[in-house]
From TrEMBL, chains A, B, C, D:
<protein>
    <submittedName>
        <fullName>Acetamidase/formamidase family protein</fullName>
    </submittedName>
</protein>
<dbReference type="InterPro" id="IPR004304">
    <property type="entry name" value="FmdA_AmdA"/>
</dbReference>
<dbReference type="Pfam" id="PF03069">
    <property type="entry name" value="FmdA_AmdA"/>
</dbReference>
Length: 336, 336, 336, 336
């Protein structure tokens, strides 16, 4: 088994997709062990570390990478299987942030009202019990919620010679902030530039739907990703696969366009997978599909279209990459 | 037990919330047995019954009611507990409809492209096995999906002397089209006019998230609703409660506003229920909340904010109406 | 000349389109002299009269009417020519209003930020010099701007048995808040119910584009409207005509849908008027058309598509109603 | 007078803002003579040259530049005064383009309807009479419209190490597609990187409001720009100044956010220029301001807030750059 470990030095962190050379080259079939820093660059460590004070724009939401996948060319697809996502510390953090979040005026939803107060919440992370503990800042209310680790940000270099802040999700991936991107899931990303140049970051111990306040339970992560390359497979928007579901993503504004993109991709994909007429697929997805919300706070919003494989006759997609990568991941975990 | 049965004659069906006198008066505590017609008025019965041919605008999406609840005054809240929702026939129907649905130009998202083809799909409904059967119109693909009956439309007369088509969801309820509105759930609706004047319709055997093609697996229903009145309780937008969750709804355009309304209501409601500061509640809902999509096809879009009660210390809401109505419903079902 | 005068008693003011009987019947060809109260019902008369204190929801934005036009049937079109719009007082008023306006969170763009301060501005209206005078509330800045009287609200009873608050613009007209609706302009409204039931209100001494703070320079008006009925002419959305332009309106959310509706109507109308292929008309409107913003603050936003008649070969529309009504108006003004 | 001429070779055209080295360095005070190619790279020359056939994505909407302005640093502002914009040929071109434009489904407003037909319209450009001639493709309808040359695209390198396709307008400028950007106007752009790196392209002989079909009357241009640098002046979004008006731009989706950004910038700018309280400025802009639509078809939509200087006491902005550059431009034109 080809295992590569990579832990970025602080100056190696990346803040864009595109516009950066690769930090490593990996061959298809590689199992990649990486460390990802939290969205604050690890600088918010107490309730007194206000992000607007300790962080410097645009050095937010660092990603680990980019990684050049050998042989990847435009028109191919990268398959990234998340073997495991484990919090790197016994604490995590969430905050409000001035003019960021769904229930406040923002840079673009510009308003004359003053910003909401900037507040930091520290969470205790217990990987033994599989929980995170919330504590109110005012009063003594506290509650445990299940640990459900995920990555908010995964993507490749965009096409058209663009470079995009990691905070922005779009057709190249980026900060989609969907809880569906957890261990056991394979992400498919269309390749736009030689090597693909994928990167991963923004670990969350858990996240509500839409990340309404703008941040999740943010944490550094030790993450294992198994990488494959599917030659000649075009993927217009990032797709996900778990054992039971296929998923399409869409990232845009307004939110209905994110919904439209994801459902349109699922309908046309389902039609091709099940040999259905397009309107027949439209009908089937309309009755059988789910629509998990990713984020409703970033520079583009993200929604998913999620379809049980059994409603489509359990088709094999991407040459069975998920099954193979899942097996590779289990072999890796068994061997440790 | 006070049980009232009502099956509307065709001319008694209603097509607006508001602007209509009550068909019956019911006392709080009543168990109401009703029949609801499907969204096509029962007129689409074969694949050749194109809705644009057999239905006449605006006589679409009929509701059963309105019902006057004795003693209900503006500033009160109606609690409607759905005891059971059973398909009235062994078939159901879904269609595309010209310029309606999320993946087509519409009346307001006006486009020069011609309409999608109008197509009807008939479903077999098997209440024994708890399934509906989809059949492609072109080719022989077929699949069973679980029966999960719900009502797309429930609401009261709006305030401000308005009357609204039943197709439109807003603060008074209406065509929210959320699969969360199933048997076992209590819906809370703020009263705007004396008697509240609630009505119910648009039964679905099941529905995907967002009702992307514009219609669900549409069916006439035999439905049992247990009714209570909570005096002096203001409900700004419809709320739902099941055994484990509290839910707020929002209906608006663009879709992010539906999200904002529902999350804003959940945050402020959670703050008041758990004695939390508003920003503390914002944080808690951000990490613990879900956001089920209702519809992304109607004249307003609908989203829900859904919060596990256990994250809020299992507060009693609306004087425990859900628990009481659930018990009343079980008593009713046991007595049959 | 058939001249009808009507000044509503306070209890005769109407707050919805639809759901109200006519206050008068008028024959086509009538010149109607009406008084309209300002959007605050005349209750905000000093800077200390905060709207949230002196006004009572939903008794806002009163309209004068509705008027039943004899012979009007669904499928016809009313032509309302604004002969003159004169401020009824030597003062006018504007305000911020809690959670209303484009640069604040609102009922639907729900935010956790506190409301902006509620402030009243009084304007001096000088009909001799044709100016209104703005005075800052803090400091001594003052400036004169041209008087440009208009009506924010004009509409008919909606179809489908609906009744809508006067604050809401939609296919029936309503609170479109466009400065294009000034004296010399003819408004065309599709008839949905017998008699049409049109009403007029919400006079503005002038208004910026979009009414960004939520209110204009609000004033009671003495207004003269000449009325015609065009039988068998369908008008899907309100249209306007002045001596040099044709205009289509659209009212919806998000704002791009208001744009789409108005442009779609103009493209298809232009195609039919100039005998153009639809794509040829799309091209011509794309290069020759304007897009005045109505409101970006109401429950639906409003935009107009405005096309010089000369680019379309100066077609006659609605049987030349504008020319006839304009002549009638001049005759009326000459005779006083 | 320091005059620099630059005509890009085809391989020197740029398709992004950011991510490219400067083609020239210019000193503040320079008068720059440039040639800009049309949005199709000059490849659509007859009605048979369908853009989807003769153009290759992403090589669309080329800009001339970028130009490095000596001494420009982040936190400064570039002032670009358009001295003259003259069509370089006696023809211009417009087209529909598959899944692009306001009245069709697009990449993000994803729909299942087939694309509109791709059609090319050729325009005759007569600089003597100052007209362009439209000819319908089907039938013999033709009409002259005034020539009103403008640039759709002007911007600088974005911040945060981003590179953006020239088609996208945002805080760095880009493809704003506003007819206000004509000769006699000064554009202010905030500097994000050393040298600013501005570029100009996408000439239009004229354009309707919103560019509803997706393209204007597209033309290569010979354009003269006078350049200044204002040190220490922060410009959050592109601003424009003509002799009588100040203008702020906003580019975002949905369209109301473009409106909000532009109005927010104008309100806060006006407050600072006229020494007004922010709510007083909100009121003044609400009654005195205009809101010209830029584009409603690009990847972000653009709107402007436009305020007569006389309503603000004719303040000097950006150290009087517009007046100086206008004089420089006149001197240049006089000297030819």
């Amino acid at each position: 088994m080809n295992v590569v470990s990579y832990r970025p030095a602080p100056e190696e962190l990346s803040f864009t997709f595109g516009g950066r050379p690769a930090v490593r080259r990996v061959a298809p079939g590689t199992v990649l062990e990486i460390y990802t820093e939290d969205c604050f660059g690890g600088l918010v460590r107490t309730v007194d570390d206000l992000p607007s004070k300790v962080c410097e724009f645009p050095y937010l939401n660092p990603v680990t990478g980019p990684f050049h996948v050998e042989g990847a060319e435009p028109g191919d697809t990268l398959a990234l299987h998340f073997v495991s996502i484990r919090p790197a510390r016994d604490w995590a953090v969430s905050t409000t942030f001035p003019h960021f979040g769904a229930l406040t005026g923002t840079h673009t939803t510009a308003m004359l009202q003053p910003a909401l107060e900037e507040v930091v919440w520290m969470y205790e992370v217990d990987t033994e019990t599989g929980t995170v503990r919330y504590r109110a800042r005012r009063g003594d209310f506290t509650v445990e919620m299940p640990l459900d680790p995920m990555h908010g940000t995964v993507g490749v270099a965009p096409g058209a010679s663009e470079a995009r802040m990691t905070i922005t999700p779009d057709a190249h991936g980026g900060n989609m902030d969907t809880p569906e991107l957890r261990a056991g899931v394979t992400v498919y990303l269309g390749v736009n530039v030689p090597g693909g140049l994928f990167a991963v970051g923004d670990g969350h111990c858990r996240q509500g739907h839409g990340e309404v306040c703008g941040t999740a339970v943010e944490a550094a992560m030790n993450t294992v990703v198994a990488v494959e390359l599917i030659k000649g497979a075009v993927t217009p928007w990032p797709r996900l696969e778990d054992d039971e579901h296929l998923m399409s993503t869409g990232s845009a504004r307004p939110l209905e366009d994110a919904y439209r993109i994801s459902q349109h991709d699922m309908v046309t994909w389902a039609a091709s997978l099940a040999g259905l007429d397009e309107l027949d697929a439209y009908q089937l997805v309309s009755q059988g599909g789910e629509a998990p919300v990713g984020n409703v706070c970033d520079t583009n919003y993200t929604m998913l279209a999620k379809m049980p494989k059994r409603y489509l006759g359990r088709p094999e997609v991407y040459e069975g990459a998920h099954t193979r990568l899942r097996a590779l991941g289990e072999q890796y975990l068994g061997g440790r």
